[in-house]
Amino acid sequence: MKWIFLFLWHYFLTRRRRRWRDRQSFEAWQERQVLKRLAFVRKRSPFYRELWGGVPLAEWRQFPLINKALMMEHFDTLNTVGISREEALEVALEAERSRNFQPRIGSITVGLSTGTSGNRGLFLVSESEQAAWAGVMLAKVLPEPFWRPQRIAFFLRANSNLYQSVQSGKLQFQYFDLLESIEGHVERLNRYNPGILAAPPSMLRLLALHKQNGLLTICPHTVISVAEVLDPIDADAIVGAFGGRIDQIYQCTEGFLASTCSFGTLHLNEDIVHIGKEYADGDGSGRKFVPVVTDFSRITQPIIRYRLNDVLTEAEGPCPCGSIFTAIEAIEGRCDDIFYLASLEDGRLIPVFPDYWSRAIISASPKILEYRVIQHGEADVELQLLVAPGADQGDIQNRVADAIAELAQKMNCRAPSLAFAGYSAPLRGQKLRRVERRWSVDI
């Protein structure tokens, strides 16, 4: 009964959007929510209590930053329910081996995420937090009220009680394991006929191909990109097959961070998380930033001043939907995948963000169907291309080389040496990284 009450409360509260008068009144409300959670966490989490020392809660923005490595290292004393990392990891790994994703320790759901970098992350969620998450998720993502009949097909590497919790009444939810064959997925989707299709862009591309070939017959009214960066080349192909537009969910171990509004704009979910902005240019004059997350909707595994390894680009102006929540132009990818090229002036290393590479490559030729770009060294870049049948591979490579040379010139950097290769798709179950830096650089 309590679960249903919490679910409905958070659903309707989010659906009504709480109607703050302006950004200033919203931020005052948000500050109160953060301080309330911090007071609880300081009492219940030995790790945070020691980390914060005697710094007053009102100065919480001065608390030290944490990251995934620190959170996993201090997992036992960071969570507030006394669950050890060893115990949680054993339960989560058994679920991975059996592919039976119903792991709990008592009433606490346990999950395991690999992340784009492959580093394992554990998460703990209580029943109350699960109910609240389900209410917020459905309110933000579903185009229709949850009590209307709806079928959702959700593709992920691993299922969880957390995702199953969105199933309610006439709302049907089916999990599709990314490790299974595409042929099996197509057959099952045709039988299920979902109205909402949510999957990583790399899987949506495969499904789009089967849709265009006439093997996949579903016509979902809502297509949602999850788990991977949505690249323009993927977005065009997916929209071409399914029509409409692609919505996005930005969620990770650290929280439900952003979702798409009715105008197709991605907004930070600032009604449940505070997002600090560590601007990539250092002085805040640009729009690219690394998020610093403080989740004031969770207390089982508190996420306070957590620095993500992602780069986001803030929208230039407000969204026409009228939301006071920060609008995001793009999720660019991991900080570790920012390329670095030597400056023409003094040889110092200059950051070149992932979206610069994507735009340069895509704009070179409309006949590029797939690509990956990998930096192996300061001046050593590998380019994997898949081009349309009958296209002149040599001509397209020359165009791409010219586009990258032009990019380097604009950035006042030395153009890298390019090595072209055939396109290599990621292994089944692995996240697709179109822009990847494999060169370790000390900046």
TrEMBL record:
PANTHER family, alphabetized: CAPSULAR POLYSACCHARIDE BIOSYNTHESIS PROTEIN
Bilayer-crossing regions: none
SUPFAM superfamilies attached to this UniProt entry: Acetyl-CoA synthetase-like
Gene3D superfamilies recorded: N-terminal domain of ligase-like (3.40.50.12780)
Organism encoding this protein: Paenibacillus oryzae
NCBIfam families per record: aden_form_hyp
InterPro entries, per the entry: ANL_N_sf, CapK_Type1_Caps_Biosynth, CHP02304_F390_synth-rel
Highest taxon listed in the record's lineage: Bacteria
Protein name: Adenylate cyclase
